[in-house]
């Protein structure tokens, strides 16, 4: 079990709030213990498959071909599939008893309404966590959000977001959403194995790379985090929709190997308590890796000298928007440690359009047709941005990628 200690400042705030309101900002002791324990838990089913194939005699190229083939024709039609692969597919394709398809679809619709803002606020919140070595070391070693690859890695993640929130996609066998989810799961396991063996990884302090607890934080960053934070930008997500998007993210966690039933929150309040607990137990031990990751991302939107005309203006618009999201959604006492664009022009754009968004968000509750149109509009904008930035590049979700040092 990883040792986690609540900071004195967070403890004092918790005590004051509890004294005056009766509300506890921290999760129950049992949840805290599970959160600490699950820093040492990975994904055994997928780990056996990766060890036997990608990191075994089969090798990465043949393993990738075998996985692609099984996703295309079904595992039952792959007679030479190893047993570990059959076990992985059986786990992946099993829909847990707790899944409510209506809630999954309602949660996906929330993502569709948030659109581009989901990715931007989620990424700003993620950047805020790079104070932690447990999160920064795997990303720096794998090259995920470091240096010139930062934008492309974000585009890979965006592709997953775009696919899983398509209507019905997360629960439809053979969908692109499920195919990409399984590849993300395998990629995470491969990176976990490589980083765990690297001399820069401190297992005593951090447990396992990409642990169950840390994967769960990303699920909260796609549900209660933006549900609350995006109110400032006019997105009026109801309590029922917040619970649905929590449920949706819990199922997405199942697809990518995040099994945290013992502590996954069922209410928004419990989700916020877990986020507060993470913030209260930060170790601030990422050293130079935190700035390396944070300071690479927003500048990666800067148009190159060869970009001219409307394309340059479009790129600068998104550069300022992304900087604005970091100013709004990174904790200011963390953000000030990094060299980032001011974010003020982007913040002005975001705040300026918030009333319009709020009007649409109010009106769509009165008209199902308008609600559907709003979802389609948001998704079209998000897809256009993704396709424009992606260009001729391809998302690979590459489980064979070597560490960069």
Number of helices: 20
The SSE order reads: HHHHHHHHHHHHHHHHHHHH
Which percent range describes the beta-strand content? under 5%
Runs in which pLDDT lies below 50 for 5 or more consecutive residues are: none
Biggest sheet architecture: none
Mean pLDDT: 93
Number of strands: 0
Sheet/helix structural class:
mainly alpha
Give the domain tally. Answer: 2
Radius of gyration: 21 Å
Percent of residues in helices: 55-70%
InterPro entries: Lcp-like, MPAB/Lcp_cat_dom
Organism: Gordonia crocea
Protein name: ER-bound oxygenase mpaB/mpaB'/Rubber oxygenase catalytic domain-containing protein
Domain ER-bound oxygenase mpaB/mpaB'/Rubber oxygenase catalytic: 110-342
How would you describe the overall organization of this protein?
With 405 residues, the protein is mostly helical. It has two domains: 52 residues, no CATH class; 292 residues, no CATH class. Helices cover 64% and strands 0% of the residues. It has 20 helices and no strands. Helix 9 crosses helix 10. It starts with 7 loop residues before the first helix and ends in a 15-residue tail after the last helix. The mean pLDDT is 93.
List the helices and strands and how they pair.
Blueprint: H1 8-21, H2 29-37, H3 44-52, H4 60-73, H5 83-93, H6 101-114, H7 116-128, H8 133-142, H9 150-164, H10 176-196, H11 203-206, H12 212-221, H13 224-229, H14 239-255, H15 268-280, H16 289-297, H17 309-329, H18 332-335, H19 344-364, H20 368-390
Protein name: ER-bound oxygenase mpaB/mpaB'/Rubber oxygenase catalytic domain-containing protein
GO molecular function: oxidoreductase activity
Domain ER-bound oxygenase mpaB/mpaB'/Rubber oxygenase catalytic: 110-342
């Amino acid at each position: 079990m990883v040792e986690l200690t609540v900071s004195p400042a967070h403890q004092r705030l918790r005590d004051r709030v509890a004294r005056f309101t009766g509300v506890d900002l921290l999760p129950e002791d049992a949840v805290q213990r599970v959160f600490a324990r699950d820093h040492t838990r990975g994904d055994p089913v997928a780990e056996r498959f990766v060890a036997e194939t990608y990191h075994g005699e089969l090798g990465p190229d043949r393993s990738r071909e075998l996985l692609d083939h099984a996703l295309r024709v079904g595992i039952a039609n792959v007679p030479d599939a190893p047993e570990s692969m059959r076990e992985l597919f059986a786990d992946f394709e099993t829909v847990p008893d707790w899944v409510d398809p209506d809630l999954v679809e309602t949660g996906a619709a929330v993502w569709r309404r948030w659109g581009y803002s989901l990715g931007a606020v989620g990424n700003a919140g993620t950047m805020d966590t790079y104070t932690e070595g447990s999160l920064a070391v795997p990303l720096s070693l794998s090259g995920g959000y470091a240096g010139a690859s930062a934008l492309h890695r974000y585009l890979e993640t965006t592709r997953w977001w775009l696919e899983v929130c398509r209507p019905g996609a997360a629960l439809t066998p053979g969908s692109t959403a499920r195919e990409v989810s399984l590849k993300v799961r395998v990629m995470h396991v491969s990176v976990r194995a490589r980083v765990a063996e690297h001399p820069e990884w401190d297992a005593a302090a951090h447990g396992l790379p990409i642990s169950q607890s840390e994967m769960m934080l990303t699920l909260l960053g796609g549900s209660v985090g933006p549900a609350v934070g995006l109110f400032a930008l006019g997105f009026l997500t109801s309590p029922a929709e917040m619970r649905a998007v929590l449920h949706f993210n819990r199922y997405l966690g199942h697809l990518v190997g995040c099994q945290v039933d013992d502590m996954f929150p069922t209410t928004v309040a419990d989700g916020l308590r877990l986020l507060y607990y993470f913030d209260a137990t930060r170790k601030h031990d990422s050293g130079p890796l935190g700035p390396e990751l944070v300071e690479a991302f927003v500048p990666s939107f800067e148009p190159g000298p060869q970009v001219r005309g409307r394309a340059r203006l479009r790129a600068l618009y998104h550069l300022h928007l992304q900087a604005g999201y970091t100013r709004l959604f990174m904790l200011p006492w963390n953000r000030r440690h990094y060299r980032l664009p001011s974010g003020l022009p982007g913040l002005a754009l975001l705040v300026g359009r918030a009333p319009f968004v709020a009007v649409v968000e109010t009106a769509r509750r009165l008209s199902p047709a308008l609600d559907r149109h709003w979802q389609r509009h948001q998704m079209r904008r998000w897809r256009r941005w993704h396709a424009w930035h992606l260009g001729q590049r391809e998302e690979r979700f590459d489980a064979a990628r070597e560490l960069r040092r």
